[in-house]
Structures are given as structure tokens and as C-alpha cells.
Amino acid sequence: MRGRHKLVSLRTTCRNQAHGVMGNLGIAVPMSDLFGTTGTTFLDKLPLPAGYAARVRALCAVTHELGQQIGMLDKEIAARLASDTGYRAIQRIGGIGAVLAAFFTVEIADVSRYPDPQHLCSWAGLTPRHRESDTVVRRGHLTNQGSKLVRWATVEAVQHAPESTPMGTHKEHIVDRRGAGARNIAEAAAAGKLLAHPGLLRAVTARSAA
Question: Global pTM?
């Protein structure tokens, strides 16, 4: 899963570079996915200067190859986790698909290491910094310590969670109360709620017991 994450990051870098070429040349990209079927046709027909054309061709080739390797890893990961009851159970939580479920399954592993959900959230860096004196308690930004991958997977799941889910409702409630500028704060708060979700904890606990 960590290797897959690195390959996806490399692919994103290549895609961003291709968009950068379009931006440098003042070319508007009319589709959301420059590397989809429509985007590839668009690039093939685009009359680019020779140097830029060579660069875009190289980026497209590398992006395609990375996509192939990511697809192969996805198949192997799915095969290895096919009999994992926790992995399947996690996917029943809104916003969590096969990839994010795999991250939670393999990164959290033995959930019995954490005495309660608060400790699990702390390990993932999803708890606020806490400073306390005799009379004053101050809470700051998230610690961002611990597992970067679990923190990323949790926030990613919250971003894709339907509004009807507890995490989606919690996020939108904070945005409604504090304004659109608090969306990052809302996503972080909802991410902590997701990681302490009883369904996720039960799924990982069942896996640990097995």
C-alpha cells in the first residue's frame, strides 16, 4: 500500500507537469481529466512546439505506465485481502472504498494496541495540540504526528463521504456554523470522528482477533 501511494504521487506529479505545459502555452484544457480518453484525443490533435510536444508525450507515456503498475498492485492487494472480514466490513462505511479500506486495514493492523479511540486518533495525528497551565487550557492545530498515511486516508474518506453519513453531516454542520473558510477545520474534525467510528473499530478489532 505504501508503494502504491508513492506511485500515485509520481503519477500526480506527471499530470501536474502536463497541466503546467498547457498553462505556459496559454492553452485552456476543456475537460476535467486531461489523461482520459477525451483528454488524450485532445493532446494528440494539439499543435504544440516540438520541445513541448516531446515533453508532453514523455509525460503521457510515464503516466500510462504508472497507471498500469498501480492497476496491477490494486489487483494483488485485493487478492491478498479478499478473505479479510475487516477489510470488507470497512467498505460498508460511507466514503470508504477498496483502496482506503486497504490503507486502514494494513496500517492500523492490531487495534488492541490502542486502549480507546482517542489514543488511535492521537496516533494518527488527528488530535489538537494541548497546552495547559494551572488555570488555562489552550487547544491548537492538529499535531500531524504519527501515521501520515492513516491521516491522509481518513481525510480523503471524509472528503468523499456523502452528506447523509455521520461524518458528512458533522463536516457540513461545522461549515454551516463557522463558514466556508472553516472547511479544513471541519474536515479534520470529521476525520477524527471517522477514525473513532464504531463500525471501523469493530471491523479492525474483528480482523485483529482473527
Answer: 0.75
